[in-house]
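User: Hey, quick favor. My workstation is busy. Could you predict this chain's structure for me?
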Amino acid sequence: MDTAAVAAQGFSWLDSEFGRIAAVKDLSSLATEVARLQYLGVGALYGNSITQDEKNSDRYAVHLYQGGLGLPDRDYYFDTDDRAAMLRREYVAHVGRMLNLLGDGSAAATAHAKTIMAIETELARASRKLEDLRDPIKNYNAMSLDDVGKLTPSIRWREHLADGKVTGVDTVVVGQPEFFRQVEKSLHTHSVDDWKTYLRWQLVNAYATEAGGRFDAEHFHFFGTVLNGQLEQRPR
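Assistant: No problem, here it is.
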């Protein structure tokens, strides 16, 4: 592997994707960009997958569930022990350093990191705890796309899924409906520029290893060294 060439290119191979994020101008184009990032494997705003329907093994279903976080799960945002508090501080510092490497000035990178943490904390607050995710009945809510749209009126789900290359779908399985109600609230609580900052981070975080060099080193510093004091799996 030519690690020097990988490090030299950094994120330049994703310039067009960063350009798409920069061009977002309203909630409609924001939703379109979220769908594109989801298609590229970036878990922005929420989680989704196409897996076997738990109540009908003869079919596959689109599953929509809580997600959009940089830390592994909601407890990292709210645990009150010293280690959790340290991890939150280090995470914000890490996000700032990554954005600085991407080209943001130091002051802007620091401010953007705080914005990202605020958005993620809102999403985490609406996320179910790990023990609540163990209930397969509670986390299975089959809904029509129209009903999902009632949870998040700002997202036109048929068009949104199509933007992510998912077509011919009339019903989906929603894991945590209350999470998507918070998504709707958060979309209106934060400015479009704040959401663009969040999407940039989601893209950087998803592909930091592939960017190599200082991006990979900083990514490993946090997720491989700071966070992995107990060998926890890095988030994707």
